[in-house]
């Protein structure tokens, strides 16, 4: 079955530590996205990528970094510069053609130890 | 001004009721529109796309009004299993913009 796989499901970060969230898709989608969702809030865009080896900052990119070395993979690193990392992180992908919806992974919950 | 605005609710309705959600968007160049459903502590899942002519999927009907820049979702004959948060999503250029969601609880 095609889909998006995020791992781990739960992640704990210590002070000063960088952590990386994995996102893999086998839907052959060109575009991939990372969002952050805080309790009772909407989704906020962190980074997105329309094509391999290219990505753009979203609304809240500070303290995060990404790479897009392969079409299937779009890992997100939460750096120590992100002072409030506790949130639900969602990865999504879509076709680049207009009118196509996004499909989401089942998310990673990140907390500070 | 936010790209997408939704009434957060909550909407508490009895089983069998009809309920409608509205959503407005600010960019007249927006191209595609969707409704997603999100259950508590889960990822959003596509409920339906919204087409200019309006579209229906079982008990769910979606409408788009480009002139007034709003979309709507109508749920008929509400079921307990419809309890969730409903997200309005607008695609503009390379990005998707999400409303904050409308919470629905269907009461027995």
Protein architecture, described:
The complex is a heterodimer of chains A (113) and B (108). Chain A has 113 residues and is mainly beta. Chain A has strands spanning 4-7, 10-13, 19-25, 31-37, 43-51, 54-57, 64-66, 76-78, 87-94, 103-104, 108-112. In chain A, the strands form two sheets. In chain A, strands 2, 4, 5, 6, 9, 10 and 11 form a seven-stranded mixed beta sheet that branches. A four-stranded antiparallel beta sheet of chain A has the order 1-3-8-7, with no helix packed on it. Chain A starts with a strand and ends with a strand. The mean pLDDT of chain A is 93. Chain B has 108 residues and is mainly beta. Chain B contains no helices and eleven strands. Chain B has strands at 4-6, 11-14, 19-25, 32-38, 44-50, 55-57, 60-65, 70-75, 84-92, 95-98, 102-107. In chain B, the strands form two sheets. In chain B, strands 2, 4, 5, 9, 10 and 11 form a six-stranded mixed beta sheet that branches. Chain B has a five-stranded antiparallel beta sheet with strand order 1-3-8-7-6, with no helix packed on it. In chain B, strand 4 (32-38) and strand 5 form a beta hairpin. Chain B is globular. The N and C termini of chain B lie far apart (38 Å). The chains are: A mainly beta (113), B mainly beta (108). At the A-B interface, strand 4, strand 5, strand 9 and strand 10 of A face strand 5, strand 9 and strand 10 of B.
Provide a brief overview of the structure.
The complex is a heterodimer of chains A (113) and B (108). Chain A is mostly beta strands and 113 residues long.
H/E element sequence of chain A: EEEEEEEEEEE
Task: Report the radius of gyration of chain A as a whole number of Å.
Answer: 13 Å
Q: Percent of residues of chain B in beta strands? A: over 45%
Number of helices of chain A: 0
Main beta-sheet strand count, sense and barrel state of chain B: 6 strands, mixed
Number of β-strand runs of chain B = 11
> Using DSSP, what is the number of strands of chain A?
11
Q: Percent of residues of chain B in helical segments?
A: under 10%
Report, as a whole number of angstroms, the end-to-end distance of chain B: 38 Å
Helix segment tally of chain B: 0
């Amino acid at each position: 079955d095609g889909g998006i796989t995020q791992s781990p499901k739960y992640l704990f970060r210590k002070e000063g530590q960088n952590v990386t969230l994995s996102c893999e898709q086998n839907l052959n989608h060109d575009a991939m996205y990372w969002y952050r969702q805080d309790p009772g809030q909407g989704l906020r865009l962190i980074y997105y990528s329309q094509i391999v080896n290219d990505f753009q900052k979203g609304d809240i990119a500070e303290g995060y970094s990404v790479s897009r070395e392969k079409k299937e993979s779009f890992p997100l690193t939460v750096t120590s510069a992100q002072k409030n990392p506790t949130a639900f992180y969602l990865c999504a992908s879509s076709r680049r053609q207009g009118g196509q919806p996004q499909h989401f992974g089942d998310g990673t919950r990140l907390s500070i130890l | 001004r936010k790209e997408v605005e939704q009434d957060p609710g909550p909407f508490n309705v009895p089983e069998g009721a009809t309920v409608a959600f509205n959503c407005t968007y600010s960019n007249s160049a927006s191209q595609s529109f969707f409704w997603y459903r999100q259950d508590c502590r889960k990822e959003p899942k596509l409920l339906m796309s919204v087409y200019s002519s309006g579209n229906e999927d079982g008990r769910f009907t979606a409408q788009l009004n480009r002139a007034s820049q709003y979309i709507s979702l109508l749920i008929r004959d509400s079921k307990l299993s419809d309890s969730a948060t409903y997200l309005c999503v607008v695609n503009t250029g390379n990005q998707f913009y999400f409303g904050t969601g409308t919470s629905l609880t269907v009461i027995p």
